[in-house]
Amino acid sequence: MSSKYSEVRIEDLIDEIAMGPFGSNIKAECFISHGVPVFNGSNLTGYTTNDDNLRFVSPEKAASLGNALASRGDVVVTHRGTLGQISYIPYDSQYEHYIISQSQFRVRCNKKVLPQYLVSYFHTREGQWKLLSNKTQTGVPALGRPTTSFRKLNIPLPPMETQRKIVKIVDSIREKIALNSRTNGYLAAQEPPPSKRRSHRT
User: Which pLDDT score, from 0 to 100, does residue 2 have?
Assistant: First the structure.
């Protein structure tokens, strides 16, 4: 990928980059049964964020957290804990806005790059190596100066039409993997337990 296209610095491809709130800004008593959802690491397990096991804060609390408020199309990156996680909020997500956690930062792309392409690149072996290149070696796994170091990374940037084609291919592969997973799960559910298989043979 990188051999075909010129490399561009991330800071030239984004409009915003912002860290999550300090932990002291979201205490346990802030969580309510519904409102604005708050991400955690389990919501960044794939190319896109997921809406599993979300917790919520009130709209007023979300507004007070300012730049920690992410929107559809934003890219979310884990900078502490389970490093290497990077996902974008899909445009058909269940909620319009999300609060990122204290262990994440968010990125809003400009018109030069598709967020889907940015995320797909950082899911490659080369992209993961770059993303983790500023990993600290002591204590809890973390990226040193996360937003600053991320800004300075270079990525290969094809023309927009090529980005769209790459994203389409990646989406097609993801859909096939998801379909295979669902099919395997269905087949496993239909298979009788070992005891019944043995009795059937006899």
Answer: 47
At residue 201, does pLDDT exceed 80? no
* Triad 8, 123, 127: Cα angle to 5°: 40
Per the listing, tokens 């794939």 go with: 46
Domain spans in the chain, listed from the N-terminal domain onward: 7-191
CA distances from 170 to 5, 48, 120, 129 (A): 18, 12, 7, 20
Rg (CA), the chain: 20
Amino acid at 138: T
β strands within 21-115, DSSP E: 36-38, 55-57, 69-71, 75-78, 86-88, 97-99, 104-109
Q: Which residue has the tokens 């990374």?
A: 153
pTM (2 d.p.): 0.86
Alpha-carbon gap, residue 76 to 48, rounded angstroms: 9
pLDDT tens figures, 108-128: 999 999 999 999 999 999 999
CATH homologous superfamily of 7-191: DNA methylase specificity domains (3.90.220.20)
Give all strands of the β-sheet with 69-71 in edge-to-edge order.
55-57, 36-38, 97-99, 69-71
